[in-house]
Amino acid sequence: FFFFFFFFFSSYAKKPIPSRKMNHRQTVLRKSITPGTVLIVLAGRFQGKRVVFLKQLPSGLLLVTGPYKYNGVPLRRINQTYVISTSTKLDVSSVDVKNINDSFFAKAKKADGKKDFLAKDEKKK
């Protein structure tokens, strides 16, 4: 009787749950999105605006621009789930976007404000 339960429970031992953190793959770009395609932004600050797709960044996000001069949309990263592609294509072969990557959009780190605050406090005394 004891042997039966031992066999039963050991056959249903808990298995570790596979981690999603190790599953880093390049996002597959939609077929309709190619460099120069005009996209319509569906969400965010520029919702409803038409933008031009320039390239896909290593993070999988799309690099798009308005251009800013014409419709006020700056160089931005957008997830492809938040855009609809149109059939309109523009020639962007002359646009140089080799140097633009995800680190281009990183915010500058602020200096530690505590040190400055303490230095000011000591000067007052």
What can you see in these coordinates?
The chain has 125 residues and is of the alpha+beta class. It contains 3 helices and 5 strands; from the N terminus they run αβββαββα. The N and C termini lie far apart (83 Å). 9% of the residues are buried.
**Quick one: overall form?**
flat
Question: What summary fits the major beta sheet?
Answer: 5 strands, antiparallel
β-strand number: 5
Q: Number of helical segments?
A: 3
Which features would summarize this protein structure in a list?
125 residues, alpha+beta, five-stranded antiparallel sheet, 5 strands
Summarize the helices and strands and which ones pair or pack.
Blueprint: H1 2-11, E1 37-41, E2 50-56, E3 62-65, H2 68-71, E4 76-78, E5 83-89, H3 113-124
Antiparallel strand pairs: 1-2, 1-5, 2-3, 3-4
Describe the structure in brief:
This protein has 125 residues and is an alpha+beta fold. 21% of the residues lie in helices and 21% in strands.
